[in-house]
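Note to self: user wants both folds in one dump. Writing first protein now.
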Amino acid sequence: MSVVTNTTTIGAIEAPSRRNTELLLLAFAVVIPIFAYANVGLSIHGELPPGMLVYGLGFAVLAGIAHLVVRRFAKYADPLLLPIATLLNGLGVVLIWRLDQSERLRTLAKRSFGVFTESAPRQMMYTGLAIALFSVVLLVLKDHRVLQRFTYISMAGALVLLILPVIPGLGADVFGAKIWISVGGFSIQPGEFAKIVIAIFFAGYLMVKRDALALASRRFMGLYLPRGRDLGPILMIWAMSLLVLVFENDLGTSLLFFGMFVIMLYVATERTSWIVIGLLMSVGGATVVGMTASHVKVRVTAWLDPFACYSTSGACEQVGQSIMSFGSGGVLGTGWGQGNSDLIGFAANSDFIFSTVGEELGLTGVMAFLLLYGLIIERGVRTALAARDPFGKLFAIGLSGAFALQIFVVAGGVMGLIPLTGMTMPFLASGGSSVLANWVLIAILIRISDTARRPAPAPAPSPDSEMTQVVRPS
């Protein structure tokens, strides 16, 4: 006698989505800025801020909407990117509101412009628009590989965005830098969006040309030197970055574009020689422009010795005040609302907002913020490593590299490590263009990570293997 049993095939076990982990982290990312907001109000006015409940509920609703969109349309995305960006954005609004309470800045604004308008409510409005744009990107961009079709269109689009600020009547010269355009009373910084658009071109171009660029003609002093004709792309990007620096007086954007291209070129070809060549070209170009362009020369002078020209140059005074802010903060800081970084002046809530972190939160707060930024960069690099397609790998590493370079040039500038670039600290500084562009960057990284972490579909079962008869002797 025998026993016949039926066994069926088991499909692939579904990978965890980690969305509940993201929700828990988002709760902390919302609560921490609310406590910071309350701390500032108690420190400055001796009472809780009157709009604390509205701010807290509004920020929680925005974070909840972003989470629901990710849960529905990017189920397997990295669970850390959204909470960290939310935390940084929330703390940025608190820092801006803290500076809005400064009597010095209110008096300066009334003296210079005749009226003072608080920046924190406007920053919350930009945050809401940024979350909406973040949601639209995840809704529309179902697969990041679609962007590869627009490789050369994106190059043209990036060039248009870079040219707009120098067009007479459209571009605006703000304190020597021509990086803004004014449309209908609103100011937009196209360079913030150009870094994303040009990353599409770099990723698509290098994916196709990486084999040719990896070829070496000769070895010199331990380096593989590329062929002459292969130097064309890097020379073109180098020239474009110099043109941005010359015509727009924008050191930060030129360093960002050229640095991002060199990073992506190194990742695509694995040739150290490209890094060396890129560094030499960037140093050479920056030196020449720094000696000839007056706006850049002023910033280099302020970097070399800000206290030598402290009383004669506004740039030197700003850098000097910033360095003193970091120095007076010490290890633990003076406390929320107890610093004097508002002495920096009009740029205290934009270019120099990190100085407020250094003074009121001290070295501990500075390291905490840099750690949060570092985690975003690390998750972006991890996403690039996990991506299954070469375009996605290069695109993710390009966006992460651009984000890292922006953190370095801004933090280094306000700390006196490098010349001031005029760029804004992502998510912290006041300004709509920066908030919108960086939330789009986070959305694209989330889309790439969702594709990379999504489990491969199980193969279709064969009808013959659905049921197997196993005969066992009784």
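First done. Writing the second protein, which came from a different request thread.
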Amino acid sequence: MDYLSYALKQDDLDRLKEFKKQFHCPDGSRYFVGNSLGLLSESAEQSLEEVLIEWKDHGIGGWLSDNPWYYFSEKLSEKFAPFLGADKSEIILTGSITSNLHQAIATFYQPTSKRFKIVTDELSFPTDMYVLQSQMQHHNVDLEKGLKKIKSHDGFLLTEEDIFKSIKDDVAILFLPSVIYTSGQLLNIKKIVEYAHAKGVTVGFDLAHSVGVIPHQLHEWGVDFAVWCNYKYINGGPGAVGGLFIHERHHEKEPAFKGWFGCDKQQQFNMSHTFYKAKGAGGFQLGTPHILSLAPLKGSLELLEQAGIENIRLKSMKITDYMVDIIKELIPELTIVSPLLANNRGGHIAITHDEAYRISKIMRDYKVIVDCRGNIIRLSPHPLYCSFREVWEVVNLLQRIIDEELYLKYEKKLDIIT
């Protein structure tokens, strides 16, 4: 197969190709870490500048100006809801993955002598594990007895059989990633929720590696709660405000942690020491919204609306399929640890090599930005700003680096950030 000709044809047919012009790519690089930090778009830049001007022109008046900051989180959450298949009342843009997960687990985890275990997976991102451990310790639950990690047979993937076997009558909460951050495996959220609910188990998800690249139907699937960040595929900027989903059947719950902006908007400035919970997921907010970190999301969401999440998913599947095929053809000695079927993975491809770190370092010398997690190189062609031709170029460069062992010129000493 002529992989370059195929790439050029696909780029010509690509209905999302015009979006690439919107993004600022540093130093003309081929940027394949959209699953780690998305690029700045002109739309996000403009929406941030608008808020800066409001701050300059209105000062404190910006809270109730023509675009009032007071309702900024709620307005953006309403625009966000369709991407997750949620009612507008079920989503709030607030906090970070870590703070939102603390809020959710503290609210939903009420251990009893019969149901006290939390089940997660041994491949979880560290911050998720830290939260689960600290919340269980707060309840004086022995971690050895109470925290159960689903084993991976190969260190990269989970099986549904193992997930289901872990759900027993003593489990209070099942918390999993929608997409495993290393291998890119996409779990069947709907099927997992149905099984767990039949066992009386509350189910939550970390959506960090699926939001913005995969359509969701959180309300219909019955997910109890979910958290995510907005600096990856959403392109909301470094440290962008995160997101929290609380299914409407739980909206009467009292949040474990109560804060200023979780108060009903009509009551907030009565300055009462009595907490009047806001309706919906908004009642689970804590402090004042980080307006400058919310601002880029306005422009980012406008781009996602224009592109369409279904179109983004279709291109993501097609371009990662192409990457898998070309890697298998040109660099057969590499191991692809991501699921080979596009329906079973998120937006990135993970490959393993003993020299993954040094390979990722030298690729940056050639203006190809990838990241490394242990012996895994993650390659994420974002559908809005990566092309099929760039995939061809990146894989050809990777082949050359490996064949000629160009990575040997680097020391094995890790940088602080990889």
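Dump finished. Worth passing along: Residues 156 and 183 are 6 Å apart (CA to CA).
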